[in-house]
Amino acid sequence: MSHADNRAERICEISGSNPYMCMKCGKCSASCPSYNEMDIKPHQFVSYVLNDDIESLVKSKAAFKCLGCFACIERCPRNVQPGKLVDAARQIVEREKGGDYIQPEEIPALLGEDVPQQLLVSAFRRYRR
User: Fold this and answer.
1) CATH fold for domain 6-128
2) pLDDT value for 107
């Protein structure tokens, strides 16, 4: 999906996930440690993306209750990767609030004893998309 104009397409593009593969088995939600904290469960999150109802996702607690543990990805028999959809939705929300990409020249100033290098590498990979 190139040059996505709507948020759902952009979420699919950022995540690399194909929500159309979901068969609603619920294994992702059953394995989610944040299940009880989420108002939209992982398997439901996929449906919201498919229905282009991103506004409801933005207003929900679900995207920010996800721990990013990717247990849902491990359990999914169809490789839908709902956790990556959740992560992509968070990125869309942050960018709409004015968040921006991390530039390579910014990384040295972020290095410190209390900041794991893996965190910076992960953030750079995530926010340069």
Assistant:
1) Fumarate Reductase Iron-sulfur Protein; Chain B, domain 2 (1.10.1060)
2) 72
